[in-house]
Design brief:
- The chain has 377 residues and is of the alpha/beta class.
- Helices cover 40% and strands 15% of the residues.
- Helix 3 crosses helix 4.
Length: 377
């Protein structure tokens, strides 16, 4: 089948999208990625390069003409690209369209008429993605609804999320297909028998969802008893005011030698292997690949009981701990730090749990969905 993935911008910056496109192609599908960006497509992380044969169709890309480039630059910034996507869809004639975000759905539905099945991905906790539409002014909200009415199926990442898509979006069908998780050989596993005394958190550094300050606050409660343990927070740094608050807290509690904001790294797998614990204080996730990949490599976890998705992937007392609040987070973190055997047990269980998300299992679910959608067409 011919599958068109629609992602407005930053195509190659999204490791998951590159991985998914490659898996689709390896299943025998023809894959086209449709985007709308005059600037760079992004930079793939090592291990996340697109396979040969996958095409990127950029409706506003640079050309060899300076005059055309000027027009494309203006058009990309100032004008909607609905007509350009309409022409692209007609020329490519894909069997299925997959939209990454609502903006991608608008690009392929407004003032367009085609009967190609549309899959709308919801790549996070649904209210976090979709409720932005509900807050729009009534005329804009009604216009958005017309696009959502053309969606054939919503894809969510957790079973519990099936009930979290508001009826406003007129969901005809909702399916749960989780993210495929890489599987690792024994030689690639985290060696928990060798204690590194290192706690990591892999996520962008921001307050509302990822909440790394809660990890710092929890560790501060027990740090005096573990002077040789370190906490490292790895992720994109975009909010200097928030980072300063964390750094001021670190200084006020004399944690400069134990807690650090590390920034972005492309060597995620090496980072997991260098750690003993993955502490994850996020308030919600879609299906966190940071958790899933670390679990697939055998790393134990700790998160919060009220964090959507986190509280389903982390099974309390089995592959990690779930905490009620910051005080409980600190105490359970302490339990993991003190007990190497418990970390090894949780890590082994985590690795086994991630086998259910092996690519061959998840991609078969996608194949079945494609067959169902095109049979209806």
């Amino acid at each position: 089948m011919k599958i068109m993935l629609v992602r407005d911008r930053n195509v190659l910056n999204t490791n998951w999208l590159v991985y998914f496109a490659n898996l689709l192609q390896e299943r025998g599908h023809e894959v086209v990625i449709a985007c709308d960006t005059y600037g760079k497509l992004g930079v793939s992380a090592p291990g996340y390069e697109l396979n040969g044969g996958i095409r990127i169709a950029n409706v506003n890309g640079k050309t060899d003409s300076l005059l055309c480039n000027l027009w494309h630059r203006i058009r990309c910034k100032a004008l909607p690209s609905w007509g350009l996507f309409d022409k692209l869809i007609k020329s490519e004639n894909p069997d299925v369209l997959i939209c990454y975000f609502p903006v991608d759905l608008y690009n392929i539905t407004r003032f367009q008429h085609h009967n190609i099945p549309i899959v709308q991905m919801v790549h996070n906790y649904p209210p976090l993605i979709l409720d932005k539409v509900l807050r729009k002014l009534p005329p804009l909200r009604a216009w958005c609804r017309k696009s959502f009415e053309q969606v054939s199926v919503f894809q969510v990442l957790m079973n519990s999320y099936k009930n979290d898509i508001d009826p406003f979006f007129a969901p005809k069908k909702i399916v749960r297909i989780a993210n495929p998780v890489r599987q690792y050989a024994e030689s690639e596993m985290v060696d928990l028998a060798h204690e590194k005394k290192r706690i990591i958190y892999v996520a962008r550094i921001e307050r509302r969802v990822k909440r790394p300050h809660l990890l710092v606050e929890a560790f501060a409660k027990i740090a005096a008893g573990f002077p040789d343990w370190k906490v490292e927070i790895w992720g994109i740094r975009k909010y200097p005011d928030y980072e300063k608050e964390i750094e001021d807290f670190i200084t006020a509690h004399n944690l400069q030698g134990q807690v650090a904001l590390m920034g972005y790294t492309q060597d995620i797998e090496g980072l997991y292997r260098s750690a003993d614990i993955h502490a994850f204080p996020s308030s919600c996730e879609g299906f966190s690949l940071a958790i899933a990949d670390a679990m697939a490599m055998g790393l134990p976890h700790i998160g919060f009981k009220d964090a959507h998705s986190v509280n389903e992937i982390i099974i309390d007392g089995h592959n990690g701990f779930l905490a009620e609040d910051v005080d409980d987070f600190a105490q359970k973190l302490k339990m993991l730090m003190e007990d190497k055997d418990l970390r090894i047990k949780f890590g082994q269980n985590a690795r086994e749990d991630m086998k259910a998300y092996a690519p061959e299992i998840l991609m078969k679910q996608w194949d079945n969905l494609f067959k169902e959608l095109t049979a209806k067409k």
